[in-house]
Amino acid sequence: MTATETRGDAAAPPPAQAHRHQQAERLSSLRTPLVVSVVVGLLALFPLIKNPIFYFWDDSAAAFLPYWHEIGKQLLSGDWPVLRPDMWMGGNLAGEAQISLWNPVSLLNYALVATLPDLALAATVVKVEFLIVLALGVYFLAREYGAKEFAAAIVAISLPVSGYTLYVDASAWVAGLIGFAYLTHFWWSLRRFSRGLLNPIVPFAFGALAMTTGNPYGALGVIIVLLVIGVERLLIKDIKRFWQIVMLGGSVGMTGLVAFLPLLTGAAVTWRKPAGISNSGFMVPGIGDLATMSSPTYQPRVEMFDPTFTTFPMTYLAWFILPLAPWLSWRAMRAGLRTRFGLFLFGTIYLLMAIAPSDLWLFRWPARLTQYVFLPVLVLVAIALSVGLRTSQWRRRALGSAAIIFVGTYQAWANTPQNIEWHAPAFVLVSAGTAAAVWVVMKNRAKLLPPVLVAGTALVLLLQVLVMPQNGNFTPWYFPTNVAELKERFADRYTGNTLQIAEIGPAIGRHGYSPDGAWRDLLFGNMYHVAGVKAQNSYTGIGFTSFADELDMEYHGGTQPEAYQRLWQKEQANGGKTLADLMRLETVVVLNDYVPDFNPAKPPAGWSVQQTTHIVNVLHRNGKIEWPDGRLSYAAPGVRVSEDRSTGFTGETVKYSGGGKVTFAMLAWPGWKATVDGKPVEVKQGPAGLVQLELPQAANGTVVLSYFPPGWGLGIPLLGVGLLLGAGFSVLYAVRKRRDRASA
C-alpha cells in the first residue's frame, strides 16, 4: 500500500460514521418543509375564528362535500361509482370531470369524508391537507430554482393564505386548489428531472395526479409547465433531455384523457358545450388589480356574483413583496436568465390569460388564474431574498417603501372608503412589518428576517379574517353539517323518489338560512342525498338540457313554480301517464306561497298532503309504484312485463312478452346501452330526457340495460399505455443511471 493510499484511508470516515452523517443531512433537509407544513396548517385554521364553516362554502357545501360523502360511502361498501341515476342531473359522476374518479388520493379522501360525522369538519380536514400540499410544492419549486431554505419557506407559507387561493379555491371551488397544488409539485419535479437529478417517476406521478383531478386549469397548467421546461432545455441546447420531456409529457397526457373524455363526448345532452371566445367582463381582473398584491384590504372592483364587486382581498398575495421591492436584489432575479427563463415565460403566459376575455372555449372567468400569475412572482422573490436585503442608500429605499405602502393603502381606501377602519390597521401592520424587516437586517440580525416576515403574514391574515370573514360574493348556504342529524330530520319524511318545488331566493327570503329556518324542511344542491333522500333535485356542473328545460331546474336543484303544473300534465305518447308517474315520484315537497293556485286541500288525483308546516306542504302518492324492484315507469299496452329488476346503479333487467314502447325513470345519459336477447336496441330520450326503448316483438324477451361512460373505451386503454410508458421510462432511466455511475 502506498503512502498516498494510506493517507486516503485515514482521511475517509468509517462507513458507520458516513451513514450517520447522511442520515443527519436527510433529517436536516426535512426540517424546514416540516416547519412550513406546521405553520401553514395553523394559519389555515385562522379563518375558523370568526367563520366556523369557512371551508364549507358555496360549491363545497352544495356539491363537493356531498359528492365526496356519497362516493366515499360507496367505496367503503365495495362499489366504485360512475353513475348515480337517483341523483338525476347531478348523477353523471364520470361526466362531472372534477369529481376525480381516477385520482387515487381523491378516492382515499372521499373514504375519509364518509367516515367523519360532520361535513364542515371534513371540508376543513381535506382543504387544510391541500393547502399544506400547495405550500410544500411552492417550497420545493423555489428551492429548485436556487432559493435558500429560509426564503423558499417564507414564500411557501404566503401563497396558501393569499386572497384568491384562500377565499375562493380553498373556501369554495376546491377542485381548483387541488389541481393547482399538484401542479406546483409537477413543475419542480419535472425541472429537477430535466437537470438529471430525479427519476422521471416523480414528475410522472404528480402530472398524472394533476390531470386526473379533472380540473381543466390544472390540466392546462401541466401543458404550460411542459412547455416552459422544454424551452429551458432548448435554451441551453439540451436536446436529449428536451425529447425526454416530450415523451414524459405524452405519457402524462394519456393518463388525463380518462377524466375529460366523458365530459367532452357526452356534452351534446348537457349545458357544458365548448364555446367560442367572448367577453362579458365577468371575473376579469385588470393589471392594476394584480399590482395591489401587497395591499391586505384592497377589494378589486371586478365584476362577480352579487354584489357585483369583490368582498374579499382577491388579488392580495403577500404584504412584504412590494414594500420590500426597493431593498431586494433585482440582479439576483436576472442571474442565470436562461436556466430560469421558465419562470418569466410561465408568468407572462398566465398574465396574458388572466386579463383575457371572460370565456375561452371550456375556460371561463380569468380571475381563476390569479394564483398562477403569482406563483413565479413568489419564486423570483425567494431568489432575491436569498441574496439578502440591500441596505446601501437606505434613505432612498425607505422613501420608496413608504411611497409604495401609501399608494397601496390609498388604492384600497379609494375602492372602499367606507372601510377606513380596515385600511388604517393594515397600513400600520405593513409599515411596521417592513420597518422591522429592514431593521433586523441593518442590525446584522438577518436570522430574524424569516420570523419577522412570517409573523407579519400571520398578523395580516388575522386582520383579514376578522374584517372579511367570508367570501360574500358566493352563496354561503349555511346547511346543517351533522350527517346523523340530517338523516334524522329528512330520511323518514321524504320517502321514495322525491322532487322539491322551491327556489333558493324565495325560500331564504322568507325563512332565512338556518336549521330552524328554511333548512328545517328544505335542502338544495346534493345535500338531500347526504340526508338519505332520493331527491331528483341535485347540483350539477354540466346539467341535462331536456330535464332542466322540462322542470325549469337550476344547476343547484332549484325549480321554478311552473314545474309543479308540468308534473301533472298527461303524456299521451306514454299512455296518458303524468310526468310524475314517469319519474316514479312518491314525494313532492312544495314551498308555501311559491306555486300559484296550489291548493293543499285539492291535491292531484292519487296524491294527498300528509305533512304541512309553515315552510312547505308535502305530498305523498297514495298507491304503490308498479315494478318496485326496478326503474321501469311505463310499458305500452302491447308489452307484458313479468319482471323488472335494477342491478346496482348501472344495470336494469326486464323480462317481457309482446312489444312496444317502455320508459324508465332515469336520464338517458350517453353511455346507456340496451339489448333484447343479446341484440342492440336504440336508447332514446323520452319526456324530460328519460330513457326510452322501442322493444321488438318477443314471446319471452329479456331487456338488459347497462351503462359505460362514453370516452372510457378510449380513455382507459390510453391510461394503461400512459402508465406503462411512464413506469417503463422510469425503470429504464434508473438502470441507465446505475450503469453510468458504475462505469464512472
Keywords:
25 helices, membrane, 7-stranded antiparallel beta sheet, 5-stranded mixed beta sheet, 744 residues, alpha+beta, transmembrane, disordered N terminus, single chain
Tell me the total number of β-strands. Answer: 17
Structural class: alpha+beta
Beginning-to-end CA distance, first to last residue: 23 Å
- Biggest sheet details: 7 strands, antiparallel
Task: Give a written overview of the molecule.
This is YfhO family protein. The chain crosses the membrane at residues 30-49, 119-142, 149-167, 173-190, 197-213, 219-236, 243-264, 309-329, 341-363, 369-389, 398-416, 422-441, 448-467, 712-735. Keywords: Membrane, Transmembrane, Transmembrane helix. With 744 residues, this protein is an alpha+beta fold. The chain is built from 25 helices and 17 strands. A hairpin with a 5-residue loop joins β6 and β7 (577-578). α3 (59-76) packs across α5, α8 (174-194) runs antiparallel to α9 and α16 (394-415) runs antiparallel to α17 (420-442). The longest helix is centred in the C-terminal third of the chain and has 32 residues, at 712-743. It is globular and about 90 Å long. The model is unreliable at 1-10 (pLDDT under 50).
Quick rundown:
The protein is of the alpha+beta class. Helix content is 49%, strand content 12%. It contains 25 helices and 17 strands.
Helix-strand layout with pairing:
Layout (H helix, E strand, L loop, with lengths): L2 H9 L3 H29 L15 H18 L27 H12 L3 H26 L4 H10 L4 H8 L3 H21 L6 H12 L3 H20 L3 H27 L11 E2 L8 H4 L39 H5 L6 H14 L4 E2 L2 E2 L5 H18 L6 H22 L4 H23 L6 H19 L15 H8 L6 E5 L2 H8 L15 H4 L3 E2 L9 H7 L10 H6 L2 E2 L5 E2 H4 L2 E7 L15 E6 L3 E6 L10 E4 L3 E8 L4 E17 L4 E5 L2 E3 L2 E2 L4 E18 L4 H32 L1
Helix pairs in contact: 2-5, 2-6, 3-4, 3-5, 5-6, 5-8, 6-15, 6-18, 7-8, 8-9, 8-10, 9-10, 9-11, 10-11, 10-14, 11-25, 14-15, 16-17, 17-18
